[in-house]
């Protein structure tokens, strides 16, 4: 008998596989195969796939089912513009509300990024760092949109940097944390904007 596993858990694992390139663009996401792998009914799998479609990591086509989304230059451009518009604003509203524990945890994630010795660990720590510094924005809808953008962006970042990534100290992350500790939200947002501009030029 199939046991209950939440759609969130399934969606997170499928997201991880798409981001890392384990599931390729155009690859079919078969409900029956996924349900069998996770030992669940089709219901949580269907919900998980709907979440991937909503994120832009998958597409649903009549008579063809759900597939991993293609790598679309227009979608990539939209992603860049949305991140530039929303993430500095999110940080601007977050900084005044971050607790000492959240600041400490963000700094630990910054250190983890700097210590990462492979691109997959770095990407996970990097995404967690950004999520942590946005936690104080107290705007659930905005936070959800930004979280979705981070997931989709990670896919493009890994594709671009996979063969050229090297361990490094991220000066922008250091600058953002220094500004957060001073509760200087404008300075933190300005560094983040520059950080995203540089990343967008790269990808």
UniProtKB/TrEMBL annotation:
Gene3D superfamilies: GntR ligand-binding domain-like, Winged helix-like DNA-binding domain superfamily/Winged helix DNA-binding domain. CDD domains: WHTH_GntR (cd07377). The keyword DNA-binding applies. It comes from the Bacteria. SUPFAM superfamilies: GntR ligand-binding domain-like, Winged helix' DNA-binding domain. This is FCD domain-containing protein. Keywords: DNA-binding, Transcription, Transcription regulation. InterPro entries: GntR_C, TF_FadR/GntR_C, Tscrpt_reg_HTH_GntR, WH-like_DNA-bd_sf, WH_DNA-bd_sf. Pfam families: FCD, GntR. PANTHER family: TRANSCRIPTIONAL REGULATOR, GNTR FAMILY (PTHR43537), TRANSCRIPTIONAL REGULATORY PROTEIN (PTHR43537:SF49). One of its GO terms (molecular function) is DNA-binding transcription factor activity. Residues 4-71 form the HTH gntR-type domain.
């Amino acid at each position: 008998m199939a046991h209950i596993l939440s759609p969130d858990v399934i969606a997170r694992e499928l997201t991880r596989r798409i981001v890392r390139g384990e599931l390729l663009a155009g690859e079919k996401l078969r409900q029956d195969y996924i349900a069998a792998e996770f030992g669940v009914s089709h219901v949580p799998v269907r919900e998980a796939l709907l979440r991937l479609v909503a994120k832009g990591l998958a597409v649903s086509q009549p008579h063809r089912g759900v597939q991993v989304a293609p790598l679309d230059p227009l979608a990539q451009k939209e992603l860049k513009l949305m991140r530039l518009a929303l993430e500095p604003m999110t940080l601007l509203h977050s900084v005044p509300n971050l607790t000492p524990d959240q600041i400490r945890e963000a700094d630990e994630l910054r250190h983890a990024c700097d210590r990462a010795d492979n691109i997959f660990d770095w990407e996970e720590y990097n995404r967690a760092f950004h999520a942590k510094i946005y936690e104080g924005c107290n705007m659930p809808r905005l936070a959800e949109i930004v979280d979705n953008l981070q997931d989709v962006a990670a896919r493009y970042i890994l594709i671009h940097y996979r063969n050229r990534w090297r361990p490094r100290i991220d000066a922008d992350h250091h600058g953002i944390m220094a500004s957060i500790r001073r509760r200087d939200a404008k300075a933190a947002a300005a560094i983040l904007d520059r950080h995203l501009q540089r990343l967008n030029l790269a990808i």
